[in-house]
Amino acid sequence: MTEEQETGAPGSIKVGVLGAGGRMGAEVCRAVEAAADMKLVATVDQDDSLSDATGAEVLVDFTTPDVVLENLRWCIDQGIHAVVGTSGFTEQRLEQVRGWLTDRPDVGVVIAPNFGLGAVLMMQFAARAARYFESVEIIEQHHPRKLDAPSGTAMHTARLIAAARAEAGLGPVPDATKDEFAGARGADVDGVRVHAVRATGLVAHQEVLFGATGETLTIRHDSYDRVSFMPGVLLAVRAVGDRPGLTLGLDALLD
Ligand SMILES: NC(=O)C1=CN([C@@H]2O[C@H](COP(=O)(O)OP(=O)(O)OC[C@H]3O[C@@H](n4cnc5c(N)ncnc54)[C@H](OP(=O)(O)O)[C@@H]3O)[C@@H](O)[C@H]2O)C=CC1
Ligand SMILES: O=C(O)C1=N[C@H](C(=O)O)C[C@H](O)C1
After folding, report:
1. Displacement of CA 139 from its chain's centroid (Å)
2. d(CA 126, CA 220)
3. What's the whole-number mean pLDDT along residues 66-92?
4. Does residue 100 have a pLDDT over 80?
5. Is 205 labeled as catalytic in the residue annotation?
6. Which atom of ligand 1 lies closest to the CA of 119?
7. Whose CA is nearest to atom 10 of ligand 2?
């Protein structure tokens, strides 16, 4: 092996992947290996030690909601930048991460509920539309091996819509039912109903359905293949070293 193959091209970013054997992790490994300005230096899965990743400058985490915080804490303590796609980030968890970052102001963390560029736009469009429609519901659809419901994307979208409605002075969504079978109206996320569908054949899809008198607006995004997330992941890997602190979502990186 030449020195360049060993260490990457001069100036290349040394990247490690946590959850490397998973559906997303494996795709990220392929994308990093194909990127001329990156070098894959560590792949970590459930039975491996995080210390295998100490040579990385940026760690990408696609693991599970129950282990991601521990991983992130370790990255921050080690001074390694982190790009996180794993779902399950409540406001309370984000606050915890901000707290850890105050002790390491040199470290950058990007947490994105969805790295699909189309999905980022779908969320932006939904936030923009929210003030004009009294009714809104979210229908997310995913592959059946997804552990969590609703999806992180749906939770984030609901929060954006709730914030936009509050800013516009809209009251609660008026579409409550009086008599309903348990679960029929989905989960209430910040006052927005979210319906989670799981079926073989799906990858990751979301519709935001808005309604006003005499009209509806549907904003829909579909990821048919996990390669759809890779341009966003690579964008975040390239940017995170220059963005100390917490960056939530890809929006700021796309401006
Ligand atoms: N932000 C985004 O754009 C996207 C986010 N996601 C999110 O990413 C996460 C992963 O999704 P997906 O790839 O489909 O899930 P998978 O279950 O396929 O992958 C998770 C991987 O993490 C591994 N793992 C578990 N514990 C640890 C640990 N402590 N350290 C290192 N690795 C560990 C698992 O190993 P094992 O199988 O042995 O348990 C598995 O290989 C989910 O939260 C999902 O919602 C998914 C797609 C896009
Ligand atoms: O588990 C998945 O597959 C996905 N998870 C993320 C989420 O929870 O929103 C992103 C995308 O929807 C795919």
Report:
1. 17
2. 10
3. 97
4. yes
5. no
6. 3
7. 114
32 membership: H or E segment, kind and range:
helix 23-34
Q: Are 206 and 151 in contact (CB under 8 A)?
A: yes
Is 89 in contact with 113 (CB distance < 8 Å)? Answer: yes
Q: Is the CB of 85 under 6 A from ligand 2?
A: no
State if residue 152 touches ligand 2 by the CB under 6 angstroms criterion. Answer: yes
Between CA 234 and CA 228 the distance in angstroms is: 11
Q: How much is the CA Rg of the chain, to the nearest whole Å?
A: 19
ipTM of the complex, rounded to two decimals: 0.99
Over the stretch 112-139, which tens digit does the pLDDT of each residue have? 999 999 999 999 999 999 999 999 999 9
Q: Which two tokens stand for residue 205?
A: 């899809």
pLDDT of residue 147 exceeding 70, the answer is yes
The closest residue, in CA terms, to atom 38 on ligand 1 is: 46
Average pLDDT, the chain: 95
Measured from the CB, is residue 43 less than 6 Å from ligand 2? no
CB environment 143-174: b (16+ within 10 A), e (fewer): eeebeebbbbbbbbbbbbbbebbeeeebeebe
- 57-73 exposure pattern, b = at least 16 Cβ within 10 A, e = fewer: bbbbbbbbeeebbebbe
Q: What pLDDT is stored for residue 3 in this prediction?
A: 55
Catalytic site residue 142? yes
